[in-house]
Amino acid sequence: MEFWGLFITALMPVLKVLIITALGTLLALNRFDILNKDARMHLNNMVYYVFGPAINVSILAEAITFKSLVMLWFMPINILLTFIIGSVLGWLLIKITRAPPHLHGLVLGCCAAGNLGNMPLIILPAVCKQRSRLFGDEDVCNRNGLAYSSVSMAIGSIYMWTYLYNLIRVSSCKNSKTNEVDDSLMNPESLLMTSPENTSTCSAGTLVSAENISQTKDSANDLDVETARTEGVAKVTAQEKVMKQLKKLEKKINLKTLLAPSTIGSIIGLMIGVIPPFKKGLVGEKAPLHVIEDSISMLGNATIPAMTLLVGANLASGLKASSIRFSVIIGIIIVRYIALPAFGVGILKGAIHIGLIPNDPLYRFLLLLQYAVPPAVTISTITQLFGAGVLECSVVMLATYTCASASLTLWSTFFIWLVL
What we know:
mainly alpha; 19 helices
């Protein structure tokens, strides 16, 4: 197909995203005040707890089988490579631009974590609906594209809430400790006002109260006393060492953030799709419990428009001025829209040459797309959680998503030409 034909095919999905995103930004402005802060919070909760898990369950239950799940084994590796390469490039960007310490986590996160769920969920079905039918039958393409995107969202969510969450947490805690030291030099009494909750947040990575900490210490002391009584010796056994390490790991990892609702929905959808009795009972018009799957599918249909409106509404905050350097924003744009996609093309060509990826053009297109998407919207949520670079994050998101309209179109055109 000619270049302009591929360009138009790639442009249409991006334009749809851009139009709905612009509508979300418009609704968030003070003049209309429809998607204000409270409205965004409630809509975000609906997407996070209801719509997102629903679309993952419905799509994966219908489209995924054990055979197709085995075929997708390379996707977790591909996403991991996007995080590793993005982190290395982000670290180089920090060194070159000399970004302030409290923005290190934000810069690394924006370079490493892409929008692996929302954008593929919007772009792939839109590409399948084009008249050119580049990826075959529309229904089959749409079903497979949504399934691939849901798996991408689930895997990306796990990486983000393990790596990215702790990355920004450590960066914010370092900055808070530096500010506390500076304040104590000016006012020694400020050391007495440091709350144990803040200290525990930096050390453990989870928001716990002083009461919970004391209860944990008491239970640990009781366990030590009981162990000493039963064993009668001070020597620590191998089993006790393992238990001690597991307890430390449990404190460091926040399982509630790791097992996000969308991840749980993906696990349930995979179980239904892979286990034949579950699939026969829930999926299909002849299934006795198909009304349950139909209801979940109806909820999932609201995910994509709600997500896109939220992206636009959150970008409205980026219209405000911030202290972030222009060189940092330009660096993030270069990393995300030039360097990472170039690495992705090289990695995919190498994997195809070795024979690691099956001959599925739509699957290969998604693997390439994972290197070219803008930064993950989850970064905004995490920065708000720790109060580190919230306004700067909004400015970066506004700049990167504005540039994404042109970048995604050009890279998608090239990717479609490459995989067909």
